[in-house]
Amino acid sequence: MGFKVFNFHPDIAAGVTAAGYSTPTPVQEQAIPPVLLGRDVMALAQTGTGKTAAFVLPILNRLMKGGERRRVRALILAPTRELAEQTHVAIGILGRKTRLRSVTIYGGVGFSPQVEKLKRGAEIVVACPGRLLDHLGRGTMDLSCVEALVLDEADQMFDMGFLPDVRRILSYLPRERQTLLFSATMPQEIRHLAAEVLKGPVTIQVGETAPVGTVSHAIYPVASHLKTPLLLELLNHTDTKSVLVFARTKHRTKRLAERMVKAGHRAASLQGNLSQAQRETAMGGFRDGKFQILVATDIAARGIDVTHVSHVINYDIPNTTDAYIHRIGRTGRAERSGDAYTLVTSEDKVMVRAIERLLGAPIERRTVDGFDYQMAASPSDREDARESYHLVPARKTDGVGNGRRPGSAAARPREFGPKKAPERTFAKFGGNKSTTARRRRSFS
Fold first, then answer.
1. Burial level of 269, CB count in 10 A (0-12/13-18/19+)?
2. What is the pLDDT of residues 75-100, one digit of tens each?
3. For the chain, which domains are there?
């Protein structure tokens, strides 16, 4: 089935052709018809399945049917600035002939330039919840004419603590609107949200919450203090094209990238302490091949859309099986094969068993020929090992793109599971009360 069956407006059909689309993906095939009919939709679809076009195309088509120009008529909420930018770019490509305008709204960049863009007018706003609420609170955003709302990556918004913000944003929207909810997983909290905001929705599920079949899996057991040397040795012994390495914290991510650069690799980090310009440089360099290796936290990597990733390496094992799915889904895309390697220590046994249950088979254990598994740890390796298990985030791992307001509920530290992290955890490292606070902020 081609895109002609949807009978899009000619200007949108031209955008589809310009984008090189020929055959709809399963999520596009199932979601576009009900969205065109104005129905609410709840879609369970993994990243990389083409879901962005599944809601962008019918929304563009809706806006082309008439209505006031330069008023915000469609709102798309995204958990990270990377995903917001990715959606904005897709709107620009698919709507290139429509003269419809899209504006991105997220934190980490200047407020005034966003106000100026809003004053010039736009039909579509792609926003992260925190910064959007800032605009609404200051009266620089009017959502009274919104006809369509999209909640993209709803499960990730929940993981980042955004659901209270989302509910506040809903109070600014007209009751009569079309609402679309897209999520890679469907935890109970998201089902509750869907029941609140969707009216008689069409439910779509594309595939199962399981890793794609084009990815092979392997585990590399190693002591905590030898993870970095093993990673470097593994990279030297593996035929890689483009590698995405996942680490647990921002600080860890930065250190790993620095170690790789010192070892002669073309590497960069993607984590929450970077400015927007630095983030764009890292992502752009990874896409065009300037950087062969990108080291990222889970949330920083959300929205990465690179089809040529040959390997995903879990330097730190993820906290959930869903997170494992999201990570390894960055390789084996567009019908290419990919490899997922995970470095594991004795403390990771429970999560390894959970991942194996998900896969339905044991994962192959491997070693790297010539690597000395009995070597003494260097000071840098001991520093890395010390971070591994004293501070394990319970849900979110950094605040990428959230634009959260200082002092808001969503901005408060929630990384450590318990309401208050034990002071003795930090005291082991020789920290006093003031350094404890600084360390707590840095481990996210």
1. buried
2. 999 998 888 999 999 999 999 999 99
3. 3-205 (3.40.50.300), 215-390 (3.40.50.300), 409-442 (no CATH)
